[in-house]
Specification:
single chain; Rossmann fold; 8-stranded mixed sheet; two-stranded antiparallel sheet; 17 helices
Length: 402
């Protein structure tokens, strides 16, 4: 089945003015925002934009270390941007406003990139969580605090883009980037909000219930398009807008978070009528776990967990992974030093989470071919023919004896 790479091979030669921007174009640009364009695309919104093709050529000349996306991000992600610049549909795009801000003091991981498309449309892409532990700490903050620092930063970023460039605005992002895109649209000023044509949330988490019901969110909810694969785990965290589309992934479980596994047909994803059994169980289990704790308990859980992780000295998931056993021992030692009541709370939360998780999802097996009736072997004749043959043989034997 086709994916977004196949889409670019098939549709890449069709310019935007001939076939309008669609949901597959959205995920291609959202994934292109993961390319490290520091020093290549200006961070200032009002600076001179850089051509997409030129930016990628410059990126290919940078050190190999900048092409490493982290433990959880497949290196194939870079092939999306590489494929985009080869296609007339995207190669004329200009890029501006590349920012990648990590603030440990504020627990903020924020990255964004603006695409000025050749049909006059603006696509603002917010990057999802990267390899930094700061980013993962901020993700946990979504469960007990709003806004998180990256959401606030996204509103100011979008406001600057709208003040600098004319034209309709599209906003999107993958994972946390999708969540940030929704927040930026909901809390934008009225002039900016009026120019927003669509907001694409590509398997990003939702919000606390009070945000979903807020006047700000409701004012843009009809323009929010949320995509979640059939067994999504990330995209069902917290509360989502009821208008979401279930799409088919070739992967299983948490691996379905990878957009390269999302099936494409024409200018759309392949849709499904309902979520998988695993996906429904994950949704129920995670919501039950989150809401079994008060917001104060969720905050305490996140703070204690990351205090233990910080004790390893690691700054990224790669750092943690490079010395797994050593870092695990340091984390356990830190948790054992907690007072009895706090340790009991942490243990109870972990038991509730791990004890109620759904069984691992197995890859779908191809249906077995239907059994067909075996034809009789040549030497095995039907019963009547056997009897006649035996009679002939007996007759011949009798004649010989005569």
């Amino acid at each position: 089945m086709s994916n977004i790479i196949d889409y670019m091979d098939w549709r890449g030669d069709v310019p935007l003015y001939a076939c309008p921007f669609n949901e597959i174009d959205n995920i291609i640009l959202a994934m292109s925002a993961f390319v490290d364009l520091e020093g290549i695309v200006p961070s200032e919104i009002d600076a001179e934009p850089v051509g997409f093709v030129g930016a990628m050529r410059a990126f290919e000349r940078v050190a190999e270390s900048r092409k490493y996306l982290g433990v959880l991000m497949p290196p194939e992600m870079l092939e999306v941007a590489r494929g985009a610049v080869k296609s007339p549909r995207f190669r004329e795009a200009r890029l501006v406003g590349y920012v990648n801000e990590i603030d440990e003091a504020e627990s903020m991981q924020f990255a964004a990139l603006t695409f000025l498309l050749d049909d006059g449309t603006i696509y603002v892409a917010f990057r999802g969580t990267d390899d930094t532990l700061v980013g993962w700490r901020e993700d946990l903050m979504m469960g007990f605090h709003a806004p998180i620092p990256a959401q606030t930063r996204a509103v100011s970023y979008l406001s600057s883009v709208a003040a600098t460039y004319d034209g309709p605005i599209l906003i999107g992002g993958h994972s946390k980037g999708g969540n940030i895109a929704m927040w930026a649209a909901a809390f934008a000023d009225n002039d900016t909000k009026g120019r927003i044509r669509a907001v694409y949330n590509n398997d990003g988490p939702g919000f606390l219930p009070e945000i979903i019901g807020s006047e700000q969110f409701v004012s843009v909810s009809d323009r929010i398009i949320t995509f979640i694969p059939q067994s999504s785990v990330v995209g069902v965290l917290l509360e989502q807008s009821p208008q979401y589309k279930i799409i088919k992934s070739t992967q299983v479980g948490i691996l379905q978070h990878d957009p390269l596994s999302w099936e494409v047909k024409g200018t759309q994803f392949v849709y499904l009528d309902k979520r998988s059994k695993y996906g429904a169980q994950s949704d129920e289990m995670l919501k039950k776990w989150v809401y079994s704790m008060s917001e104060e308990d969720r905050e305490q859980f996140a703070n204690i967990l990351f205090a233990a992780i910080d004790s390893t000295g690691a700054k990224t998931l790669t750092d943690l992974s490079d010395a797994k056993l050593k870092n695990l021992n340091v984390i356990l030692k830190s948790l054992r030093s907690l007072d009895r009541e706090t340790r009991a709370k942490m243990t109870r939360a972990m038991v509730n989470l791990l004890g109620s998780r759904p069984a691992p999802q197995k890859a779908e097996k191809a249906p077995k071919p239907e059994k067909t009736e075996k034809a009789p072997k040549p030497d095995k004749l039907p019963r009547t023919e056997k009897a006649e043959k035996s009679a002939r043989q007996a007759k011949n034997k009798s004649l010989k004896q005569l």
